[in-house]
Amino acid sequence: MLTTSQYFPDWSSVWQTSPFLIRLFLLLLLLPCVYTGYFALSALAQLRFLRATPKDESLQKSLARLDRRSTNLRQVIAGTLYLFGFVIFVQLQIAFSTPESNRALGLIVLDNFREDFRIAAFVFLVFLAPHSVQWFVSNRVRKVEFPA
Q1: Sign (positive/negative) of CA torsion 129, 131, 133, 135?
Q2: Could you give the CA distance from residue 79 to residue 50 in angstroms, rounded to a whole number?
Q3: What is the pLDDT of residues 65-98, one digit of tens each?
Q4: How far apart (Å, rounded) are the C-alpha atoms in residues 45 and 128?
Q5: Are the C-beta atoms of residues 142 and 67 closer than 8 Å to each other?
Q6: CB 3.0-4.6 Å disulfide test: which of 1, 64, 92, 108 passes with 98?
């Protein structure tokens, strides 16, 4: 019988079962996540301050700077996603490396794939968070920049 823990594992098991390359990537993934949080907090605080200021050229410059930072953050998230694609496909190639055992080769490879897919599901879920935050902040900047 299938269990939900098969598809939604304890996330600490992702770290424990991950090979070195994936662990290194997971540590690297913390950088855009932390920067996204910092950017979101500082941008929302700055937007709150900018709403109280009169509409002049300095407001437009500040909003343009926030929009550029948001675009750069989007590029960092996309670049990290591309790096993850490279790492996971390198890892998938390693799934065919199996030790000598009495189990059928196909079952060992499928178990290796299952672990890689669990890790990929976790990483894509993590990517959803900074992407959503960046999208929300970018939307708020554009609402102040171009009010309806």
Answers
A1: negative
A2: 30
A3: 999 999 999 999 999 999 999 999 998 888 777 6
A4: 23
A5: yes
A6: 108
